[in-house]
Amino acid sequence: MDQVKSSSTVTHINDQGSRHLSQEEIEKLIQQSQDAKQHAYCPYSKFRVGAALLTMDNTVFRGCNVENACYNLGVCAERNAISKAVSEGYRSFKAIAIASDLKDQFISPCGGCRQFIREFGLNCDVYLSKPDGSHRKMTVDELLPVSFGPEELDMKKVFSSP
C-alpha cells in the first residue's frame, strides 16, 4: 500500500488489488475506523463506534454510530459505512475494521450488524480493534455461524397445498 488518498467522504488505499491485506494496510484501515469514531453522535449511550469498509477496488467508506432519542432509530457504524458504499454502487468488500473506546476488549459488531455484513458475503475479513491499534481478525462465518443469506432465498422450497 503506497498511500491513502482522502476526501471528506471517501478514502482510497493503494495496494496490488489482492484480497490479502498487509500489516500496513490493516493498520491504516483500523486508523480510518478510529478516525470515523471521532464523528459519532452518541449523546445517550456515550459509546462511540467507528467503522472503515474496504471495497474490492480499495475504496474506503467510513461510518460512525448515530443515535436518536427514539432509541431504535439509531444507526450502527458498520451499517452506516456499508450503506454509504452500497449507495455508491459497491456490493463486494475485502474487509471492515471496527473501533470503539473499549480499552481492555476488542469491539465486536452487534447481531444486527453481523447479519448486515453477512448480506454481502462470507469473504469479508472483520477486524475488531482497541484504541491502541491492536486487533483481532475474524471471518464473517466465525462471527455469524450457520448464517442465513441471500442464497437461501434461491433454494428449493416445499409449499403446502391449501
Notes on the structure:
This protein is α+β, with helices and mostly antiparallel strands. The chain is 23% helix and 23% strand. The protein contains four helices and seven strands; from the N terminus they run ββαββαβαββα. The chain has helices at 23-37, 77-87, 111-118, 140-143; strands spanning 4-6, 10-13, 49-55, 59-64, 93-100, 125-129, 135-139. A seven-stranded mixed sheet has the order 1-2-4-3-5-6-7. Strand 3 and strand 4 (59-64) form a beta hairpin.
How would you sum up this structure in a few lines?
23% of the residues lie in helices and 23% in strands. The protein is α+β, with helices and mostly antiparallel strands and 162 residues long.
List the helices and strands and how they pair.
Layout: E1 4-6, E2 10-13, H1 23-37, E3 49-55, E4 59-64, H2 77-87, E5 93-100, H3 111-118, E6 125-129, E7 135-139, H4 140-143
Parallel strand pairs: 5-6
Antiparallel strand pairs: 1-2, 2-4, 3-4, 3-5, 6-7
Approximate strand percentage: 15-25%
Order of strands across the main sheet: 1-2-4-3-5-6-7
Helix content percent band: 10-25%
Radius of gyration: 16 Å
Principal-axes shape call? globular
Largest sheet: 7 strands, mixed
| Structural class determined from secondary elements | alpha+beta
Strand segment tally: 7
Q: Low-confidence spans: pLDDT under 50, at least 5 residues? A: 1-8
For the termini, the CA-CA separation is 60 Å
